[in-house]
Amino acid sequence: IQQQPFAGVRLLITAGPTHEALDPVRFIGNRSSGKMGYALAQVLTELGAQVILVSGPTALPAPPLARLVRVESAAEMHAAVMERVGECDIFIAAAAVADYRPELQASRKLKKHSGNIDLRLVPNPDILAEVAARNPAPFTLGFAAETEALEANARAKLNNKGLDMIAANLVGGAEGGFDRDDNALLLLWGDGQRELPLMPKHQAAREIARALMQRYVTST
Ligand code: C5P
Questions:
Q1: CB burial class (10 A; 0-12, 13-18, 19+) of residue 104?
Q2: What is the pTM assigned to this prediction?
Q3: Which of the four pLDDT bands, split at 50, 70 and 90, describes residue 48?
């Protein structure tokens, strides 16, 4: 058995949430711990890959062997990815990127007053879709967090974004996922799929790495 099947393979991984500032002290963000992306970075470096981890704000320690690039917002994550994606073989989008950001960012703390506040939100770029649409594009693995119709929604995302592979998990129930230590996943690719039962995220990362290697090798 080969000890370092990812030796010489360059990976770019996004992880964590993004924070979209409203003012210097407030933000809109997603509920994401970053654990899945950090576990993937850890496991893949152990398997020999060169990993750059572009991470939104998390409380996690840096994986020892990966290069960590810290960002706050989706715009910063987008810039950090685009700067480096040309030199990577595999792109894994494990970040829970905020789909929208406030149109305006106050430079001073917004004051409380008695009336309502209207927030106008504008869309953020879809980093994963943009990477997958490059020519040449790296091998792309995306994530899909869904509250219902897991397989159908994930397969639609795989096709619409033009991905090589997607890891889908149900969120909002007892099945793990966001902000948890365990995850149950459904891996989908062009003509196949594999179910990963509820397991710790480090173990899930090993299973994803195994499936990723098989798909990556057959695609190159
Ligand atoms: O469309 P949806 O947000 O559900 O897609 C999830 C996948 O797309 C994840 O892999 C996520 O990291 C990625 N994504 C992204 N940039 C965005 C939104 C999602 O890279 N702006």
A1: exposed
A2: 0.95
A3: very high
Q: Could you report the per-residue pLDDT of 118-172, keeping only the tens digit for each?
A: 999 999 999 999 999 999 999 999 999 888 899 999 999 999 999 999 999 877 6
Q: Which numeric CATH code is attached to 10-99+120-219?
A: 3.40.50.10300
User: Candidates 14, 30, 54, 127: which one to mutate for ligand 1, based on the most atoms within 8 Å of Cβ?
Assistant: 127
Cβ contacts of 32 within 8 Å, gap of 6 or more = 16, 17, 56, 58, 95, 96, 178, 179
**Cα 82 to ligand 1 centre (Å):** 15
CA 81 to centroid of ligand 1, rounded, Å = 13
153 is a catalytic site residue: no
Measured in Å, residue 200 CA sits from the centre of ligand 1 at 22
Q: Is 126 annotated as a binding residue?
A: yes
